[in-house]
Amino acid sequence: MKVNGTPYRSLWWDESAGALQIIDQRWLPHDFRTQQLDTIEDYAAAIVEMRVRGAPLIGATAAYGMALAMARDPSDASLERAWDYLHDTRPTAINLRWALDRCRRALASRPEGDRVEAALRLAHEIADEDVEINRAIGTHGLELIREIAAGKPEGEPVRILTHCNAGWLATVDFGTATSPMYQAHDAGIPIHVWVDETRPRNQGALTAWELGSHGIPHTYIVDNAGGHLMQHGMVDLVITGTDRTTRRGDVCNKIGTYLKALAAKDNGVPFYVALPSPTIDWTVDDGVAEIPIEERAAVETTHVQGIGEDGGFATVRVAPEGSAGGNPAFDVTPSRLVTGLITERGICKATPEGMAALFPDMAQAAE
């Protein structure tokens, strides 16, 4: 996608520096900053501190972290240390483990002398695959938007609600939930996007920044406004992303997604999840019982960051001094509330049968 007319991915390899460059997302949407990752500690900090965020992007970043580890020391011990160190950064998004496992399997079978080049090549491959997966998700999701548009009066937009940021900033490019929106807009289909703020880190502001940069009409709303809009017929479709999806179709996404799904079910609004296949955890069935939910620092709920009246960054306490802050980062939406899953291979029902029909190779391999 483009920033001020310049094409960017959310991460890219700088051949001249021999290092990975990322967009440091802590400062968005107010300031666009990039950072070079030079050490394995830089990679871990980037993931933990959400300089990079979003399940697909975390996975791609970790793959480059493994490549750096091999460039420093291609031994078996180094490979295992890097896997452990990066795996411990965030517990919920399955793409992290998927990418690390893929790197470990591919590199463990190679002689140490071949690992440096092979690791970097594999990281590039994982990043490029993510771009293509997200483009394909958009192509399939576009058809849903096109169908809704066909039943509307000419010129009336398809009104889509999304939660958190499942845009190109959360992936290598295109995004998951936003990919159908970009493709619909580029196809000339009028759309309007309701963007949840997504407290406590307000990732919806990143979605608004993305959509605005692309010229897509949107409105930034508080998290609790979605149900009201649905009650009044102002939402045609909900599309969210996912950080982990179980084999039966339970969806783990940013905290608050479950409430949106409940409101959508109550008001007959289709609730779809944009699902890249690396985000499926075929080892888990019951998402509520089995997916570990990351508990982040309380300061994210008790304080907010933004631009002060002087134009500089400011952190402000919003909770009373002495009040404890709870901060579960994700919740699980049971499959019964999900209308369908938009994947790179097509759209399926959020059921074991629906998922296995689209991904028979993966389902069988997990048995």
Write out key terms for the chains shown.
367 residues, alpha/beta, Four Helix Bundle (Hemerythrin (Met), subunit A), Rossmann fold, 2 domains, seven-stranded mixed beta sheet, four-stranded mixed beta sheet, 13 helices, 40% helix, 19% strand, globular, methionine biosynthesis, M1Pi_N, S-methyl-5-thioribose-1-phosphate isomerase activity
In a few lines, what is going on in this structure?
The chain is an alpha/beta fold and 367 residues long.
CATH class descriptor of the largest domain: Alpha Beta
Instruction: Please give the share of residues in helix.
Output: 40-55%
Low-confidence stretches: none
Distance between the termini: 38 Å
* Strand-residue proportion: 15-25%
H/I helix tally = 13
Radius of gyration: 20 Å
Strand adjacency order, main sheet: 8-7-6-9-12-17-18
* Number of beta strands: 18
Report on the architecture of this protein.
With 367 residues, this protein is α/β, with parallel strands linked by helices. The protein folds into two domains: 2-128, Four Helix Bundle (Hemerythrin (Met), subunit A) (Up-down Bundle); 138-366, 3-Layer(aba) Sandwich (Rossmann fold), CATH 3.40.50. The protein has helices at 40-48, 55-72, 76-87, 94-108, 115-150, 179-186, 204-214, 226-231, 257-266, 287-290, 299-302, 352-358, 360-366, and strands at 2-3, 6-7, 11-14, 19-23, 34-37, 158-162, 191-196, 218-221, 237-240, 244-246, 251-254, 271-274, 280-281, 303-307, 313-317, 330-333, 340-343, 346-348. A seven-stranded mixed sheet has the order 8-7-6-9-12-17-18, with helices on both faces. Helix 1 runs antiparallel to helix 2.
